[in-house]
């Protein structure tokens, strides 16, 4: 066992609650030992969350038998709920339970959600209605669990550091962020393998794929509770978010009910001065300026979160599937920090946070442009499956003259099919159930023949017709519809071998048909450019946005802006939900639409950013040294605040 007994020190901490506890340090550093429990907890929790999401869309399509649009809509509705619930978690932690108890209790809810979700993926547990009900209940519990603890875990980790250890706290957040992506990388690789390579209940093992994240969440909870005796546990101090909302409500109410005889106010928020201190009102003004900039941001997240839905579906129609974003994040973050940004600085380009975010939007739009090109090429090699109750059918006429088909209850193939003519596109054949045996009538040179074949829903078939002395011979061949496949028919009297794209085909003689094999399909590597562009956009947009929000918020308002930032993610998923259900476009056109919308939003954001002036929240202590300032003493300062809060007092012009 490794033990830094000669370097570990114990320090007594007296909390506001009056309790004293020991806070051991890691090997003589200023890092509390308890942060290791928090980092491991976050790694396991993110593994649990992203591992479940990695197969969620495929679970909807393959197990619950939903179509792609409904699957995408529910996926983004779930993602959206996960980013609405942090507001609830912040309120519970700040005004009722405190961060520690909130994390523990909501983690239990989180575990229950995973368990319910796993049970819903067991085929023998009820019918499809039960499976859907359990899946939805599980997802709702998971959304409340992961969303509720989201605003608490990182802040709770930051609380463990002494005020003088600023650098250590900053490095902790970097380690914390890396643990998030490390968990994501492993989960998005391991969970799909468990689903596809492990068979249970006679098919892909979704129960195991969801069960492993449940186990990881249990481990996360146990690890977090194990450090309980070492944590600093600050009691709840009231919710600033509620104070902000109440102040806004009072200002709006007083402004609405004011008469023309009332004194004018310089700002509409000043109507709340009768009840709330001017410092709080001024802090809310600062926050509102940033929140206005947040208005265009959901469009970025509308594109970003489609990596787990539309892009995953695109990958399944190629010849393999792999999630790259989390892996690329681990590579791109240090590259941007150590190489890209310093090089830009050497070129004397003033790349402010808002400029970085605008460039990140452009990268995301380019990523969807690349996804559009991939989608166009994928569609050339893909046969889309028929809906439930139907199958796909095409006819190859290898007879010596034209034939005409008649299918009972259908008008398909009403025109004669010429000999050796390229077959028509696949036609949708109604079955009215899971499978159906159909007698196909064939008119050849005035002679009538019949072929009795059984068709199964959602499969693709080729009906091959050729002549023999006894008449027309029918061969029904089922095909893979996931992507274009190669199959050869040999009309010669001897067997032949064909090699194409490095794939060998043996074709028996006398109208023998080769096995169905794939060759020269669109490779998954063509998705790398779109993932690289999107990850670059994430680094410049997401990480910079969090930094910008933190730097522009007063100390007691940072949770308010964090809640606002998370809400932009939620509304981004709502946008995808609306488009997926309402647009009805081909997938490549939908990708192009999103790219165009983000470019338009980026232009609007850039204009808004140009007129934004950076502020220094530290100036608040100079303007309001006693936190709450008497009204009579503050009149002069109130008039000065709009002109003294700039980071750069010399350059007065608005800067992006």
UniProtKB/TrEMBL annotation:
Any one GO MF annotation of this record: symporter activity
Lineage top rank: taxon: Eukaryota
Annotated compartments: Membrane
This protein's record includes keyword Lipid metabolism: no
Membrane topology annotation: Multi-pass membrane protein
UniProt keyword list: Membrane, Peptide transport, Protein transport, Symport, Transmembrane, Transmembrane helix, Transport
Gene Ontology biological-process entries: protein transport
GO cellular component, one term: membrane
Protein name: Solute carrier family 15 member 2
Protein source organism: Hucho hucho (huchen)
């Amino acid at each position: 066992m490794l033990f830094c007994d000669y370097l570990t020190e114990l320090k007594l901490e007296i909390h506001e609650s009056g309790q004293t506890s020991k806070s051991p340090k890691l090997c003589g550093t200023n890092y509390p030992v308890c942060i290791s429990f928090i980092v491991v907890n976050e790694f396991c929790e993110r593994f649990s969350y992203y591992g479940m999401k990695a197969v969620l869309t495929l679970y909807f399509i393959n197990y619950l038998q939903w179509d792609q649009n409904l699957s995408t809509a529910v996926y983004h509705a779930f993602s959206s709920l996960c980013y609405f619930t942090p507001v609830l978690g912040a309120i519970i932690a700040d005004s009722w339970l405190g961060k520690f108890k909130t994390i523990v209790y909501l983690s239990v809810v989180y575990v229950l959600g995973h368990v319910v979700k796993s049970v819903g993926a067991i085929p023998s547990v009820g019918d499809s209605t039960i499976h859907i009900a359990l899946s939805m209940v599980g997802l709702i519990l998971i959304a409340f669990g992961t969303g509720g603890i989201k605003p608490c875990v990182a802040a709770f980790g930051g609380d463990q550091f002494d005020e003088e250890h600023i650098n250590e706290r900053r490095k902790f957040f970097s380690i914390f962020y890396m643990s998030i992506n490390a968990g994501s990388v492993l989960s998005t690789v391991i969970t799909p393998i468990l689903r596809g390579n492990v068979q249970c209940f006679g098919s892909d093992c979704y129960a195991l794929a969801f069960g492993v994240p449940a186990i990881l969440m249990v481990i996360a909870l146990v690890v977090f509770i194990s450090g309980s005796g070492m944590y600093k546990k600050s009691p709840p101090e009231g919710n600033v978010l509620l104070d902000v909302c109440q102040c806004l409500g009072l200002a709006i109410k007083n402004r609405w009910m004011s008469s023309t005889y009332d004194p004018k106010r310089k700002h509409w928020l000043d109507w709340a001065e009768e009840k709330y201190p001017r410092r709080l009102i001024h802090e809310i003004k600062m926050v509102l300026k940033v929140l206005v900039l947040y208005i265009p941001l959901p469009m970025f997240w509308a594109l970003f979160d489609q990596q787990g839905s539309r892009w995953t579906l695109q990958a399944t129609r190629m010849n393999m599937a792999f999630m790259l974003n989390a892996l690329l994040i681990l590579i791109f973050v240090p590259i941007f920090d150590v190489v890209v940004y310093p090089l830009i600085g050497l070129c004397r380009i003033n790349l402010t946070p808002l400029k970085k975010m605008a460039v990140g939007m452009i990268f995301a739009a380019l990523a969807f442009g690349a996804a559009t090109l991939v989608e166009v090429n994928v569609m050339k090699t893909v046969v889309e499956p028929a809906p439930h109750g139907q199958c796909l059918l095409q006819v190859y006429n290898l007879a010596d003259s034209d034939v005409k088909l008649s299918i009972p209850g259908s008008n398909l193939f009403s025109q004669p099919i010429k000999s050796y003519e390229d077959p028509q596109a696949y036609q949708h054949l109604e079955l009215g159930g899971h499978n159906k045996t159909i007698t196909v009538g064939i008119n050849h040179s005035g002679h009538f023949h019949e072929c009795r074949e059984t068709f199964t829903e959602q499969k693709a078939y080729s009906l091959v017709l050729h002549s023999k002395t006894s008449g027309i011979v029918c061969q029904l061949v089922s095909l893979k519809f996931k992507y274009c496949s190669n199959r050869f028919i040999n009309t010669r009297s001897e067997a032949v071998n064909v090699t194409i794209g490095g794939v060998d085909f043996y074709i028996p003689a006398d109208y023998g048909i080769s096995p169905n094999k794939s060759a020269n399909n669109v490779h998954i590597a063509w998705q790398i450019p779109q993932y690289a562009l999107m990850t670059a956009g994430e680094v410049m947009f997401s990480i910079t946005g969090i930094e910008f929000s933190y730097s522009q918020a007063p100390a007691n308002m940072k949770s308010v802006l964090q809640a606002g930032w998370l809400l932009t993610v939620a509304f981004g998923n709502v946008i995808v939900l609306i488009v997926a259900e309402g647009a009805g476009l081909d997938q490549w056109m939908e990708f192009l639409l999103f790219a165009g919308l983000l470019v338009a939003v980026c232009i609007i954001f850039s204009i808004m950013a140009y007129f934004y002036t950076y502020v220094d929240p530290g100036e608040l202590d100079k303007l309001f040294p006693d936190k709450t300032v008497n009204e009579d003493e503050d009149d002069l300062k109130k008039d000065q605040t709009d002109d003294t809060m700039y980071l750069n007092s010399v350059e007065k012009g608005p800067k992006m």
